[in-house]
Amino acid sequence: QVQLVESGGGLVQPGGSLRLSCAASGSRFTINAMGWYRKAPGKQRELVANIISGGLTYYADSVKGRFTISRDNTKNTVSLQMNSLKPKDTAFYYCNVQTPLYFWGQGTQVPLSS
After folding, report:
1. What distance in Å separates the CA atoms of residue 68 and residue 19, rounded to the nearest whole number?
2. Please, are residues 110 and 93 in contact by the beta-carbon 8 Å criterion?
3. CA 98, CA 22: separation in Å to the nearest integer?
4. What is the rounded distance in angstroms from the CA atom of residue 96 to the CA atom of residue 50?
5. pLDDT at 41 over 70
6. What b/e readout covers 74-93, taking b as 16+ CB neighbours within 10 angstroms?
7. What is the structure's pLDDT at 114?
8. So what's the pLDDT on residue 100?
9. 100: buried, middle or exposed (CB in 10 Å: 19+, 13-18, 0-12)?
10. HSE-up of 76 (CA within 13 Å, CB side)?
């Protein structure tokens, strides 16, 4: 079993930046991939970015060039640096870990102020 604790969400203005972090804990697990999904009202959950054990990263087209995912394998943490935020980035963001079972964080809200 893996527990995920997220931090870093909050209200931000368009054009601003925010950093989300997620720490994984538990016993006897090997992480294959860590990433972030988001769920906006009225939309399906989408993969925002992830990073696999070898360091290969994936970004959704909508965030390329603005978001950066990073991972600390020694601490089992993953972070998402979000720059140049847009109103369409408003969503609940969920940390995800694959072991290869899927584990999810509780979600953190990223609302964009008008």
Report:
1. 9
2. yes
3. 13
4. 9
5. yes
6. eebbbbbbbeebeeebbbbb
7. 64
8. 80
9. exposed
10. 18
| Residue for token pair 């290869």 | 100
Which pair of tokens denotes residue 41?
């009202």
- Tell me which residue has tokens 């995920």: 4
Between residues 74 and 37, which one has the greater pLDDT? 37
* pLDDT 10s digits, 85-100: 999 999 999 999 998 8
**3-class secondary structure for the chain?**
CEEEEEECCCCECCCCCEEEEEEEEECCCCCCEEEEEEECCCCCCEEEEEEECCCCEEECCCCCCCEEEEEECCCCEEEEEECCCCHHHCEEEEEEEECCCEEECCCEEECECC
And the tokens for 45? Answer: 């959950």
